[in-house]
Each structure stands twice: as C-alpha cells, then as structure tokens.
C-alpha cells in the first residue's frame, strides 16, 4: 500500500474545543486549547492513523463571545515544539500572520521548529483578516485586503531568503583549524523592499527541509496568485464537488503559469465528519450538535464570516445583497453562493456556519464518510482533506478507527510513513538554496 | 536537607558551544545550539543536580565571526517548550527582547510556555544593546540606552497586564448552561502609553504561575531601577566578592524603596567553573582553553563588550580611556574597573573576556570551586549562581557529579524539588491578578 502513486492526504485541523461551535457541550467532549495532555493524546491518534499533518489555526484577538476554540489557545510554534517531542512522523503545521509579525522572528520560529522536529515543520502563511487585531500591535492602521496580500508576497520572499542564510554545509565545526562556520558559506540578505528592510543573516542554520513546507489558505484572487507562486498545501473551504474541481483546475493552470509542477501543490478542503454507527445515529448526533447552538453566538459567527452585520434582517428571509467586505473575501463569497444555490434563509445559513464555519459537513456512517471523501478525491476536487472533527477526542478517534481503515482497504491512503521529513512523506522536493546552489 | 532556610540557587546558563570562546575546540566538547539530543542530555543532567533553572540567552543578529555559541541558536521559547517535555521540575528561562518584540506576542509566548511546562517559565526581560539588530526589523532607528529602559518599563507593565486578562476561574466550561468563559471574568487592557497601544485581552488564559518569573540582567542605573521594581532573579557579572556584596546591598535598598521584599529578589552572578581532578589539572585545562583562543576573535569580543573598537591600541599597553558607550553600559564598566584594578594589558583583558565574556572564571578542584561559591554566598555577594561551563557536556557533568554533592554535604543546596512550579521551588509568591483580586 506504500506504493500509492498519489495517496489521499489527511490533515487533522486540531482545535481545542472542536470545530462545531457547540461540539464542546457534547457529553463525550473533552476540550481546551491549553489542555496539553489531551492534545498529546489527539496527536498520537493522528499519528496512529498515519495522518500527514497536524494543523493549527491561529488568531491575534479574542473576546468572551468568540468561538470556544478561539477564546484562548497556546502560541502555535511553542505548542508544536512540545508535540514534536511526543510524535515522530507527523507533519506539524502552524498558522502565523504576515500582517502582524516580523519576517525575522517568523523565519527563526519556523526554522527552529523544523530543527526541533527533525524536518516536520510547515507554515500556514496567512494575512490577518480582522481589523480589530491592529489594536494589539504597534503598526497602527490595519492594511486593506490588497495591501495585505502585497505585504504577504514580500514577507514570504524575505522569510525564504532568510532560511537560505547559511549553506547546508556552512557549519564545519573544525576543531583543529578553529573554524566553527565557514565565512564564505554565510549570506547576508540585505533586503530592501516596499514594505520591509531586513538585513540578515538569520541566526538559525538552514532548516532540515531547506524550507518548511508552505501552506496557503486564502482563495480570493490575490490569495490564489500567492498560492500558485509559493503554496505547497492549499487549505480551502469548498462546499460542492463542482466548486472543488473548478478551484483545483484553475489553481493548476496558475501553478503551471508560475512555472511550477501542479504535482507539488496539494489542495486540501476542510471537512467536518459527523460519524455515527448508523445513518440514523449520525443524523441524530448532527441534530444534537445543532440543537446546542446558541442563536446569538451563531449570528456573531455568521457576521464574522460575511464581514457584515446581518442581525437586523429577517431571520426567515433570504440572505440580503451585501457589498464586498474587505475581510474574508473568498470565504464570504463561498457562503453567499451556497445561500443562493440552496435558497437558504438567514437562520439556516447561520446554523450551517455554526457547524464548521462554512466548511463542508459530512454526516453518516464510516462507509458514507469514506464514500464522500473518495468521491471528491477521485473526481479531482481534492488531493486530500483537512479533517475538522466536530468535537474531540471521540469523534476524531472514530474517524481514525473506523473511516481510515476503509480508506486504506480501498487503496486511497498510506499505511505507513515512508520518509524522514514532511517533504519526503508528501513527495515534495527540497528547495535548493538561492545563494548556495548545488 | 529540604528545610534549608535559604538554599543557594543554581542556574545552568545553557549555551550551544560552551561559554569559553574556544571551549568547543576541546577534544571532549560536543556542541551545537541546534543539537537537540545533546541539549536534552544536558537538561537531564541539570535536573539530576536539582538545578533551579535552565537559562537561555538570546540575540537578534549574527555573523560568521560571532562567538560560536551565538552564530546560530534555536528560538528560546520553542526550544524550552520542547525541553519542557523531557524535564519535570527545572525552571525554564528564556531571554526575549523588549526592544524588538511586540508585548502581545511576548506575553502570549511566555504564557504558552508556562502552560506547556506546568508553571516553570521565566522571562529574562532584556533590552537589545546592539544597534545592528535594528537592521533586521521594521522599527527603524535603534533607541538610546535610556529610551531602551523606558520602553522596557512600559513593555513589562503591558505584558503583566495581558497575563491578567482572565481571572483564574474565568473558564467555567459549563456544558449545561452553554457558557465556556464567564464574560465578566475577562479584562480588556486598553493600554495607551508613551510607546505602546495594546488593546487586549490576551488570547491565552492566565499562566499557572500567575506570571512567569521575571529575570533582569542589566546592572546600569536604569537596569537596577527596573530590577528593583519588577525583577525576581537578577543575573549579574561581578568579578569580586566586594563588588557582589555592594551590588546586592544597593539593590536590596532599592527593592525596599520600591515596596518589595528583598527575600523575593535573588542575585545570581554568572560563574565559569573550570574543573580538574587536581589544581594542576584545572590550571592546565584553563591554559589549554586559553591557548585555543584566536586573538582576532578575542579582540572582536572585547570590542563588543566595551562598545568601542580598541584594536588600534598597543595590545601590551593599558586599556585606553574610553567614553561611555550607549551599548552595554554596566558590563563595560565592570570590565574597565577590572582592567584598572588588576593593571591588565589589553591583551590580558581580551584573553579574560574570551573566557566567559567578562563573567567570573573559577578554576580548581571540585572542593576549590565549591569553596569559591560558598564564600560569595555566605558573604552576601550572591543568592546563588548562574553556572557557565566552558564547554559541554563533560565540564558540566563534572560540576553536577563532583561539585554539587560537596555543596549538598555542606547544607548549601537542596537535594530535591519541593514545589510544583518554579515559583514554589524558589519560594516566590504567586502574583495576584491586578483586575480580579482575590
């Protein structure tokens, strides 16, 4: 089974209180974004299921009425450094913003994680959508959607340049000659761009993977351009197979245009699997979860995803026409399309968003969940999935114990880790050093 | 032995290639600031010796001619998060700059480390001395020595305020009521000061220790004022017992003036112990280390510590009169005093600095090293020591295996960890929450 030409990739989108906004209220739910013991158990389960990635989202603001998973969460690189010690193979992906971080600090954090984990780090390079984040930082005004992407483009280039500060063989550590590092094998970046001036070199040696794997999660026009140029894993939120196929095809065209191999770019839509022993059981569980939603919290989540306040509108009427938001453009468009296509009322829409924040929800038996994943995968709508359990740990254990074996029997996923690093496991090339090629 | 009223505190100043600039060249030396396996072994040794702290310095620039320990080193919070997994009791102290970091990011990183380690985090709050660091960051011009301390004062207050964002009991996680966090137990800081505007709340719950332990390492006038107001461990570099006593007494007076208990402020001078089985062996080892020094590298280190280029002066003449530098004021003054007092030539001074960067070097048998530590401790010049082995791991193993048992027999150090958190172990109080007292 390890000879799969193109195995289905599986990420676990790890989130303290689960992905369903009311998931934590389920009797079986254990939770807490700061509950290290639980998180270690979940990571071990993911590794037992040969998942490719542990994926952590992040945010730079909080409030008492936020999604329970977002109120408090450990800093992702610190958490993944700890998880690197209790896992051996799984990739460790953290989200960090290009809008409110310094490229030097970020390059150093991910290079460190790559060293600590023996080459398993991945960086989800995001722009910060929420204007209120600016209140926590010195930079002043929140940049516009387009500027955020212009900043991200330059930021990522600086970070990749810093990762190439040292040749792979720079640290000769020659006791006899007294030469610790070869001066000629160190590069000073001296970057001066539109947004950043960064001298270098970075004070961490080149990461084991050359560069940590780059993940991109924005699907707007600028987001797709960025993904096509630098993304290796693309995390998306399509609701239908046709949308998924169209997105992946469009992205592949842009990837080729950028001179890259589409085989080195993997599209992973988020999926929230609600699993029951029978279809009726799964349906009942989904109903139970939906029943736990606080309507006031749900409407806040919907406002958040749309970038507009819709609480004044008739809840049993259609989604009103809204101008484009400067916030989450692509995610908002997918939701709007969904509401129009399915003729959803506002109330139906916000209940749906409360489930998995606009990501696809699949409820059913293990067979049915496996079918749903296989269909998208074989249909070219996805290279794999970022699994978003409604609550932890039992719903995720169910996925690993009951769904993964079905996928394995069908020859869709691997039954072992084949490489030493995340890049090896994903079949991604190790980037050459820009300054010390060959 | 656990009833010691005031045990001698021991920190291990962990540094990849050792503290002596040529230590890494010793045949027994293993090294690498990114060599996790070695670092884990050293941490285990420190814990076996019941050390209070693992201490990591840091810097935000590098160059090929830097001290080998500084050329490349992992980001300290990421490294300590990993070490938290392979240790159980020892405190985990990381240096992070108040000059080139955002208070929100820093507060979150250390709160996360405190959660991950079960209450063992400490923050060495430094200002960045080196103007060249500014080249790696957006903030533009490097602030002056006085401004750096004014920034640090405000920065630390913001960080402590952010740590108090949530009451200790804020996260009720009441499944029946559907209340994850009590809205009335969350505080929004809304800080607007001279240097920072930070909204809050922090998106991490209150650290187990309330606040991670605060370490302060500057000994200039502004540095001492800051230490007196907020420092709990003070890391210094005195060369003589009289200097140590005078510093500690002066600090205690300032601590009392600030309304704090001097018993809650521990002064730990750095000491580099060079240990041999006999006095002759220790002397030979020290000579061997000094013989490995590259004079060109040594003069760079001296320039660095003085904040002035002295390479044009006669190496066999005295230290020239130099104007006060804006860089490392207190460390430069200690060195200047030492050169004058001992009539050192420039060459002698730079050989001395190359040994332990201006920290005290003690060479001798285990008994002699223990004597030297005991004398300062009983003489009121220190509450303990930050141990700076010339190279790793054997010189540190020697300290733990041969010196620590002597200190224990003399009733100077503890033979066990008595508390659950670093504060407990150090006898430091848990700070009350500024916004939710009691």
TrEMBL record, chains A, B:
Annotated Gene3D superfamilies: Luciferase-like domain
Binding, FMN: 58, 95, 145, 149, 219-220
NCBIfam families: FMN_nitrolo
Residues annotated as domain Luciferase-like: 20-381
Protein's recorded name: FMN-dependent oxidoreductase (Nitrilotriacetate monooxygenase family)
Superkingdom to which the source organism belongs: Bacteria
The keyword Iron is annotated on this UniProt entry: no
GO MF, one annotated term: oxidoreductase activity, acting on paired donors, with incorporation or reduction of molecular oxygen
Similarity annotation: Belongs to the NtaA/SnaA/DszA monooxygenase family.
Entry keyword annotation includes Oxidoreductase: yes
Keywords: Flavoprotein, FMN, Monooxygenase, Oxidoreductase
